[in-house]
Design a protein that fits this description.
mainly alpha, 0% strand
């Protein structure tokens, strides 16, 4: 299928390519002079954009399983995000090359002289870690490709059997997703500090993924609407997206507070160190800013009904949530890998920003390419009429 016109990056493609190249150069230079900082920044941005792509697939799956029709007008948006999943999976696999800079349990000497790491060695070892990573990424990519294939066939043939196949696929995916993503979050993020453990990490990351997905879908949908490419996206659709963003951000805050409160009142040394390192130096400002960006601000702004229906308000609120989500991942990775980096006034370095912009530019280019490969309106979808009159 040939590419159609650009919907998102028309006129700005050159600058995005420059941003990708600049991010790549910054990463290479970082590997030469500051490998720990380079790999930690790479992990943060890689995991962040993986959750954006995976979040698009999760959003679609929830819509299919619940027989929802209201989203059909902008269904191509989460499909385009999910289409970036193969490339995002490849970037996560690249983390294996830098595992020795990130994960202390990859060092034989550390395992030999640490009783806890020795006890966890049957699970936390490079071979098994790589196998689990390949397995979960392949699983997610498979569901993303199959869902997209059946959706496009539904358009071409207007046969409801393809929608029914996606319902079945989505039900299977949603049964596997919480376990696979929780395991991945424990492997890729929590094991950065193998002496710390939390039973709520999986749910916490899922809540972050859901708010990220709705924010990204809202931003792309609004940008397409402003360009005249998605005129059927109405204030009612925006209102529903705003309600989801409001709800998922509050769910994230509930889990954030639950984890913090449990660790605070039990006051166990092996648990409190996780927060102590994040409440010192420049990290303390980022620690509280994280809550403001991911919950307090969107909660206050989206509390009123007109705000959820406002294109401009939902656009900048969604942008704030995406920035907050990146910061949340940054605060989970950097203090565990290189706590000394957070002693400065901000705790965010040049490499962090360069890789974020590079990854973001590449992700935007891939999203635009996916949007151009199919009509933006899913004309063969049986729920289209319902969505147009939502």
């Amino acid at each position: 299928m040939r590419d159609r016109e650009s919907h998102l990056v028309a006129g700005g493609r050159r600058w995005l390519v420059v941003a990708v190249a600049a991010g790549l150069i910054a990463f290479i230079l970082g590997l030469l002079f500051r490998p720990v900082q380079a790999w930690s920044a790479f992990l943060v941005s890689s995991f962040f954009f993986l959750t954006v792509a995976l979040g698009g697939l999760v959003f679609l799956a929830i819509m299919y399983v619940s027989n929802a029709g209201w989203h059909t007008v902008f269904k191509r948006v989460p499909e385009a995000l999910a289409a970036c999943l193969p490339a995002s999976a490849f970037s996560m696999l690249a983390i294996l090359a830098g595992a020795r800079w990130l994960y202390p349990w990859t060092h034989a000497d550390a395992v030999l002289h640490d009783e806890l790491l020795s006890a966890k060695a049957p699970y936390l070892n490079t071979g098994f870690f790589a196998a689990r990573m390949v397995g979960v990424l392949a699983l997610w990519v498979f569901f993303a490709l199959m869902t997209r294939r059946y959706s496009l066939r539904q358009d071409a043939h207007a046969d409801i059997k393809y929608t029914r196949r996606n319902v079945v696929l989505s039900a299977i995916f949603l049964a596997l997703f919480p376990f696979s993503f929780s395991m991945a979050s424990i492997d890729w993020l929590m094991s950065l500090d193998p002496h710390w453990a939390s039973t709520i990490v999986g749910l916490y990351q899922i809540a972050g993924l859901l708010s990220t997905a709705v924010a990204a879908i809202s931003i792309v949908g609004i940008l397409l609407r402003r360009r005249g490419a998605l005129p059927d996206l109405t204030e009612t659709h925006l209102h529903d997206l705003g309600k989801l963003l409001f709800g998922f951000s509050t769910m994230w805050a509930y889990l954030w507070f639950s984890q913090y409160l449990l660790i605070w009142y039990t006051n166990l040394p092996e648990e409190t160190t996780h927060y102590l390192v994040r409440l010192q130096g420049g990290a303390s400002f980022l620690f509280y800013l994280n809550v403001v960006l991911n919950w307090a601000l969107p909660f206050v702004v989206l509390l009123r009904r007109p705000a959820k229906r406002s294109e401009g308000t939902l656009l900048w609120t969604s942008t704030v949530v995406l920035v907050g989500r990146w910061l949340d991942i940054h605060l989970q990775v950097v203090p565990a890998v290189a706590p000394d980096r957070l002693q400065g006034p901000m705790g965010i370095g040049f490499l962090d920003v360069a890789l974020l912009l590079g990854f973001g530019a590449a992700f935007l280019l891939m999203t635009d390419r996916a949007l151009g490969k199919a009509p933006l309106l899913a004309e063969g979808d049986p729920y289209l009429v319902e969505a147009l009159h939502h």
